[in-house]
Amino acid sequence: MTRKPEPKPYHHGDLYETLVTAGTELLKEDGLEHFTLRECARRAGVSHAAPKNHFASVEDLLCEIAARGFDQFVTELDAEADSDPAQSADARLIAMGRAYVAFARANPAVYLLMFRHAQAFNKSAHLQAASHAAWVQLETGVAAVIGPERNDVLSRAAHVWALVHGIASLIIDRRLPGPIDFEQVIAQSLASLPAAIRGVGRS
Amino acid sequence: MTRKPEPKPYHHGDLYETLVTAGTELLKEDGLEHFTLRECARRAGVSHAAPKNHFASVEDLLCEIAARGFDQFVTELDAEADSDPAQSADARLIAMGRAYVAFARANPAVYLLMFRHAQAFNKSAHLQAASHAAWVQLETGVAAVIGPERNDVLSRAAHVWALVHGIASLIIDRRLPGPIDFEQVIAQSLASLPAAIRGVGRS
DNA sequence: TTCCGATGTTGACGGTGTAAACTTACCAAA
DNA sequence: TTTGGTAAGTTTACACCGTCAACATCGGAA
Fold this sequence. Notes:
2 copies of one chain form a homodimer.
Chain A: H1 15-30, H2 37-43, H3 58-81, H4 89-106, H5 108-117, H6 125-146, H7 153-172, H8 182-198
Helix pairs in contact in A: 1-2, 1-3, 3-4, 3-5, 3-6, 4-5, 4-6, 4-7, 4-8, 6-7, 7-8
Chain A binds a DNA duplex through loops.
């Protein structure tokens, strides 16, 4: 017989990280509505109450998953914005918008957790810092387009966020009618964005 | 003693409508995450399994609530669009956008049910018809602005929807940073919309 | 009048999150 | 080296939930 000298040690060793990993996978596989703390524990090979020692509640675990999602999100958007150092501020903003929607489509469950459900549990310092960084990133991109001296940077940034968030949400939730070409919607909408937030065409 | 000649009749009489009403109220009070079929039954003064005779599952009840939400939604948007018969197509679209966001802010829980959660259960004929009517309404408004002969009415309609849905979602979910003036965001974003979907400013 | 089907009730099952009590293992101080 | 304290996991229990099956009740049609 093959020797099995590991009769399941009583202590796991790194349950915290294992739970975050298992939770992220569960989230991506089954979606937020089927996310279960007991299933995370099962995947980590641990009793259903073991997570209590590391996460006071299921929301605390989701909180950490969302925070790491924001970290990755900000990194990816930065990379895309800096991909061509010679591009204009307009092109940078559009590139970030494309990366935004791409992230959402690539990680729908995590995206929804970050931008939709993660409103109830804004306690974690990690989550607050990471989501704040994302907002600063957006604000900076918008200020570069319309000029940092403008007094409506905040509301114009909200405009940009609303558009990309709306596109991402409608695509992820499969709300758009069948024949619609997602790429066309994304390209057209983002292309109109710099002029729109600059306020040209005011009659 | 006061006479109580009604010892709780065995049959309710109109449990279907009562459940829809109680469910709508519960949804508005406690939000979708705390929506419970058993609580609906409790509010209707009926046993926890009674709803089974009218709604096969909790989603069937939510489905009907969402469908009625769409009915009200379409009615309100139509009323707003037709409020001033002399206004231009641009003004009509902007008015509908304002009415869209206003509906979402006035009925956040129902709005979220309609445009977010009601994707899993698209079986009810009522729901499908009502949500389709909302889409036709949008498509018509967009066609009037950019011209019905354009071959990108669909994607431009998606653009409009994405923007208003994004604004509504961010406001409802309280994602926008504190100092932001919602009214300014709504006004600025909607004002830019007709030109944006017409495609002016193409370089 | 009788009977049958629609509607409500009761009780049960498996699932969930969470709390309390108990067990195990490790580490540091005496 | 022994010992004690504490962090980490387990077990058990509770109150919810949705759903199902079996049973009770009532009204209307034959």
